[in-house]
Amino acid sequence: MTVFEGSLVQPSSNRAAGSMPAIWQRFTATVCSVLLVFVFLYYVDVAYVILPWYSFTVPGMLHLMLLSASTGLALRCYFLCMFTDPGRVPPGWQPDAEQQAAVQEVKKSDGGARYCKKCNQYKPPRSHHCRVCERCVLRMDHHCPWVNNCIGHANYRSFFLLLVYCSAALIHSTLLLLGHALHLVSSSANSRVVRVGPRATPHTFEEDPDSHVLWHIGLQTFAFAVALPTTIAVVMLLVWHIRMVAANKTTIEHAEGITAQIKAGGLGADKQRHPYNLGCVHNGLQVLGDEPVLWWLPRSSATPGGLAYPTFLDSRALGF
Ligand SMILES: [Zn+2]
Ligand SMILES: [Zn+2]
């Protein structure tokens, strides 16, 4: 058996394992602002860009369908992240003394079984105590204030898909706003008629340059100023989590540098390898589900497991 150190045991506290707050309590100011950005960008893109610019043409309908699909799927994933319990440790759970696991996580302090003094219970592998949720969370990745929930075993997949669909919707939205701005500038320079606003009102810049055309341009400029930095941030986060999925690692595990602790435990030729890294394909299957054709689908069904995970030493025994 190989032993490696997990997280430090949390300081003592009398707080019991936290329960999920009521639905209305989930809608914090941060959550409401995220939802407002969703609605605002979608509305400006549809009412002020797609319909006035493309009208009900084939390209216009394609843009409308793609943007609606990516925004709808992103919203579905967002609410799944918000309302799915990330996974809690069953009451009375204890490490299985009979289990001959190839790798076990232990306390750094004395090498014993990981125990949460705040929840007064043992901690399964990859679980951590969240100070915001006030309980231990299975395969905890991080606590996300943007969805006001922990991201862990049962909702990590929804979180990953949220980043994928958000990135797609935001890139699409940003390019539409940029393209339409260039179209307006070009029309202005050539004194062409443009159609603006939800009613697609025909307008030239010469006849009334201070009119509502400038208001539309200001609104779209503001939307672009919101969309561009949001797009950059979300895409960067997506790239980070693609790395995490490919390595079957959580953000906490990355931060703690478990691989360095494995080195201390000594795993021969695999000293540097993350214990749950089963290879890129098997990592994807484990994190996103074993049916790749369904990876794109946001699902609310209960996620089994969460108390134990195969390691690369197990995978050798299993022959993959
Ligand atoms: Zn705990
Ligand atoms: Zn939390």
TrEMBL record:
GO molecular function, one term: protein-cysteine S-palmitoyltransferase activity
Membrane topology: Multi-pass membrane protein
Stretches that traverse the bilayer: 23-44, 56-79, 159-182, 213-240
Location relative to the cell: Membrane
Catalyzed chemical reaction(s): L-cysteinyl-[protein] + hexadecanoyl-CoA = S-hexadecanoyl-L-cysteinyl-[protein] + CoA
Pfam families: DHHC
Source taxon at top rank: Eukaryota
Domain Palmitoyltransferase DHHC: 112-256
GO CC term (a single one): membrane
UniProt keyword terms in alphabetical order: Acyltransferase, Membrane, Transferase, Transmembrane, Transmembrane helix
Xref: PROSITE patterns: DHHC (PS50216)
Enzyme Commission code: 2.3.1.225
PANTHER family: PALMITOYLTRANSFERASE ZDHHC16
Domain comment as written in the entry: The DHHC domain is required for palmitoyltransferase activity.
Record family assignment: Belongs to the DHHC palmitoyltransferase family.
Protein's name in the database: S-acyltransferase
The organism of origin for this protein: Tetradesmus obliquus
Origin organism lineage: Eukaryota, Viridiplantae, Chlorophyta, core chlorophytes, Chlorophyceae
